[in-house]
Sequence to fold (515 residues):
Amino acid sequence: MAKASPAQGSARQPARRSGGAPGKPGKPAARINDLDAIRVKYDKTLFWFRRDLRHVDNAGLYRALKSGGQVYCVFVFDTEILDALSKPHDRRVEFILESLKPLRTALRQAGGELIMRHARARTEIPKLAQSLGVQAVFTNEDYEPVTNARDRQVRHDLDLLGIAFHAVKDQVIFARDEVLTQAGKPFSVFTPYKNAWLKKLGPFYLRPYPSADYLHKLARLEKQDELPALEDLGFAPTNFRELKIGTGMEGAADTLDVFLDHIDRYHDTRDYPAVRGVSYLSVHNRFGTVSIRKLAGLAHGRRSSGADTWLSELIWRDFHFQILHNFPHSAEFCFKPEYEGLQWRNNEAEFRAWCEARTGYPIIDAAMRQLNSSGYMHNRLRMIVASFLTKDLLVDWRWGERYFAARLNDYDLAANAGGWQWAASTGCDAQPYFRIFNPVTQSERFDPQGKFIRRYLPELARIPDKFLHAPWTLSPLEQQAAGCVIGREYPAPIVDHAGARERALDLFKTVREAA
DNA sequence: TTTTGAGTTGTTCGA
DNA sequence: GTCGAACAACTCAAA
Fold:
């Protein structure tokens, strides 16, 4: 790698780069994605871990290590984030804690240390940077409005202290404005975005950042920070341990190994929640315990229909990130403004029934039990329950989005809001409003033997397969025989789908006519 | 500027 | 049971 003097190319020297005026679309600050573009040298830097809990192939950590002498590492349990969670039960806090342990071990084995803080990150980072006497803070960039605002403030406050702030692309292949239409505008339709994404992809973008090769540059610390206990953070244990979710890089690697055995069948098996068809890597993507470059590289190199379909899902992830960045209102408002006029029914009791798995539709209730008991829900089921809430019950997609936000281990604002708006037909590239999932048909098609339903709804164990998807169609006598009387052991359907479908079509029609 | 082709994941109805 | 059409035109992106 060519060594460049700090003076070289000072016009685009990242240390002096401004954060950009908030709200002003203009030209985004340049990002350093180039392995050879590291020009600025520092004596001491601080690397701030966030949703990138790995020391291998970590772009920001690599840049920090290559940029100078000693690198301190910190993880902040950000009270601004933790206080927004519903305490005291949140499996994600446990996932993070468990993933920090091996990360810290790896840093220690290389002679470094992971500084731990439980504080407001936006004030703690400048404070820590100053007390350590570093010249720069490195981190991997985030794409959500709230984290963007936090990072702008950190950048500003560090600037006042004369400390540089470098936010590096790490969690996506292409960020923000890297894939644009020929007119230079962001895509809002997935397929042309995907085509442009694939066209732009080259080995360069899949190359790993060899951060692990430079850990000898980690700064030594006299004092070792203890990991906070769950209770110190204001949380109590959940059933997280029983779930046996692999954590840290090792958990991600194990999960990936299993997936690679069946990735070529992904296209054919991914829609069946009773089958191990999907990757189960979403939580690792969320917390960065695996590198997206590694995943995309594996999928791209595989050349099977299964791998291609899975790569599409990874591209969807980038797509949602860039949509949120370019259309930040879409996290809270309908992407298509005319749909703000929808008169949602928003019946609280029906919403509670949906949350608590009491809708009387087995596939919906089984899915919601999976979510409530594990923090995970199969992708096909996410679509089915989202369609049911927004179309059958006519509950505002934001209610469902917030509920998922509170429960999903892999929750990510960009993908979650995008997915809900897709299901509600209010989003960019959403499904047509008349495409309304039939919960019984979907159940019959994707859980034909009811294996998934029976796993989560033992009260339906003895209902014959044929009737499992719509148990109310069983005669009262047969219900008795199966030990499951509708209205007693299992609720009657909260709504008649055929009628609800007509109701939804009418409602969406009023908006279209008003537009 | 105009034209053209295409658009994640579905359902229902009637022949 | 199988198949095509209707659902609704509309907007995006590229040529």
About this structure: The domain at 337-514 of chain A is CATH 1.10.579.10 (DNA Cyclobutane Dipyrimidine Photolyase, subunit A; domain 3). Residues 189-192, 271, 312, 316, 379-380, 383, 387, 422, 429, 431-432, 434-438, 441-442, 498, 501 of chain A lie near DNA strand B (CB under 10 Å from a C1').
